[in-house]
Amino acid sequence: MSPAVRAIFADYSPPIGITLAILLTAALYLRGWLAIRRTRPAQFTAERLACFLSGLALLWIATASPLDGFADTLLTVHMVEHLLLMSAIPMLLLYALPVVPLLRGLPAPITRTVAGPLLRLRALRSLAHWLVTPAIAWLAMNVAYLAWHAPAAYDLALENEGIHAAEHLCFLFTSLLFWWVIFRPWPAEKRPNDWGILLYLALADIVMTMLSGFLTFCDRPVYPYYVAHPNPFGLPVLTDQVLGAVLMWVLGSFAYLIPAMVITVRLLSPVRNTVSMSAIDKDRSREIRAEIRRVLMSKWDPIGVADEPMAADEYDSYIGDVFELLKSNASSSRIGNYLREIETVRMGLTDAHGQPLVPADHREEAVAALMQLRASLY
């Protein structure tokens, strides 16, 4: 081991705050995963768990391991950190369908007194829906990407640990928004990716290519920090810059182009009928989903927003699940349990003893209406 490497390891001390936060997140997800797996084993597989834990492990490596020490001296390693935070980590976390397991993992008092009231805030839900619209999510990630790679911001992050941590958090948060549009993890309403999503990915790849190309072909060091703090490995500053830019260019393009290829194949593949009942055409499907929406709003309405015109889409994220339950011939009790789970787990509508606040007759009336609707599917 070279003296430079030994020096970086000697200066390393694990950041307690980040490490504990990652371990706590892992514990919450595992607790929630174990609970929800009892009722949804086909959806919450061991693969989902492995992906979430792998994403958290990569997050620790990128932000809290000795790799961060190497990133302070080598641009190439710094770019590896950014690639992990903006592609591999968010994709692994979102594939694990993290929303409900993390909520289920919270202790009941916290769900009841903190998470539940927050989730019921109309303004907060509206903000969340707005942030994951394609235009906003795309702009958030790409503006953050370009802004933090401007020389002044980049050097400031390297010179100040607090700002460096804010940079990492910004990359992770905006990238989660960006990839949310692609994955739309349950219980978000599923929307089939169309040709527009290929443009979404291609434009992001163009932004990354422009910055990478500039760093690759620029004939001078772009970041003064590396000139003022030469790396102890003897690697010329300009060579380090080119290596880092090429790495970001190639691996970053794979992060965008591979999903684009998968989506293209799916779009070009013939549609297969996997419904176990008589075929439902698109028009009929839209009619049924509209009716489910009406039932959820008029019969169920656990948070009492039926009279608010701006809340017409409040329960839209649950329509897809209800539609699938009806198609799969689910029993009334199973549909009722699903609605109860939404009330108590996702919305936190429980009393001090953990019992549902929503009157049972609301749920029963909604289930009865949905069961009548199912008859029209055949």
Structure summary:
The protein is mostly helical and 378 residues long. The protein has helices at residues 3-11, 16-37, 46-64, 67-71, 75-95, 99-105, 108-119, 122-131, 134-148, 151-159, 161-183, 195-217, 224-228, 237-268, 282-300, 319-327, 332-346, 360-374. The chain has 18 helices and no strands.
Task: Describe what this molecule looks like in 3D.
The protein has 378 residues and is mostly helical. It folds into 2 domains: 12-268, no CATH class; 282-377. The chain is 71% helix and 0% strand. It contains 18 helices and no strands. The protein is elongated. Mean pLDDT is 86; it is low at 272-279.
What key phrases describe this protein's structure?
2 domains; single chain; mainly alpha; 378 residues
Counting DSSP E segments of at least 2 residues, the number of strands comes to 0
Describe the largest sheet: none
Secondary-structure element order, as H and E?
Answer: HHHHHHHHHHHHHHHHHH
Q: What would you report as the Rg, rounded to the nearest angstrom?
A: 24 Å
Report helical residue fraction. over 70%
Q: Low-confidence segments, ≥5 residues, pLDDT <50?
A: 272-279
Secondary-structure map:
Elements: H1 3-11, H2 16-37, H3 46-64, H4 67-71, H5 75-95, H6 99-105, H7 108-119, H8 122-131, H9 134-148, H10 151-159, H11 161-183, H12 195-217, H13 224-228, H14 237-268, H15 282-300, H16 319-327, H17 332-346, H18 360-374
Helix pairs in contact: 2-3, 2-6, 3-5, 5-11, 5-14, 9-11, 9-12, 10-11, 12-14, 15-16, 15-18, 17-18
